[in-house]
From TrEMBL:
One GO BP annotation of this record: microtubule cytoskeleton organization
Gene Ontology CC: cytosol; dendrite; microtubule; microtubule associated complex; neuronal cell body; synapse
Span of the signal peptide: none
Molecular-function GO term, any one: microtubule binding
Official protein name in the record: MAP1B protein
Length: 134
């Protein structure tokens, strides 16, 4: 932020500023679950029953293993052990490895990963889909 000629003030910005938690039913993890924008503070503050994890670009590290680990660390700091469902939009190597490596911790924290079991066909394209009932 600039404050006149030669007077510059540097302000550090965070994705989610500190404060009380916000409770939501469904949250889309921003920016294809990239760790540049989502960290532990996000999951400590933005508490949801369902998180949608997008990203299918391993070169861009999306979804990020760091974001998935941040979910575990953030959820561990919640006062309650409410059920959380993680909904991946794509089947990725990162997601499969994270699921296998952290399965026991997921169970301890009451986190369920929803696997895609349906296919939607639109025009000439088909893709996996999940039905969510809130």
């Amino acid at each position: 932020i600039s404050k006149g000629p030669g007077n510059t003030k540097v302000v550090k910005s965070t994705a989610v500023p500190p404060g009380p938690p916000v409770y939501l039913d469904l949250v889309y993890i921003p920016n294809h679950s990239n760790s540049k924008n989502v960290d532990v503070e996000f999951f400590k503050r933005v508490r949801s029953s369902y998180y949608v994890v997008s990203g299918n670009d391993s070169a861009a590290e999306e979804p990020s293993r760091a974001v998935l680990d941040s979910l575990l660390e953030g959820k561990a700091q919640w006062e309650s052990n409410m059920q959380v469902t993680l909904i991946p939009t794509h089947d990725s190597e990162v997601m499969r490895e994270w699921y296998q490596d952290t399965h026991e911790k997921q169970q301890d924290l009451n986190i369920m990963v929803l696997a895609s079991s349906s296919t939607v066909v639109m025009q000439d394209e088909s893709f996996p889909a999940c039905k969510i009932e809130l």
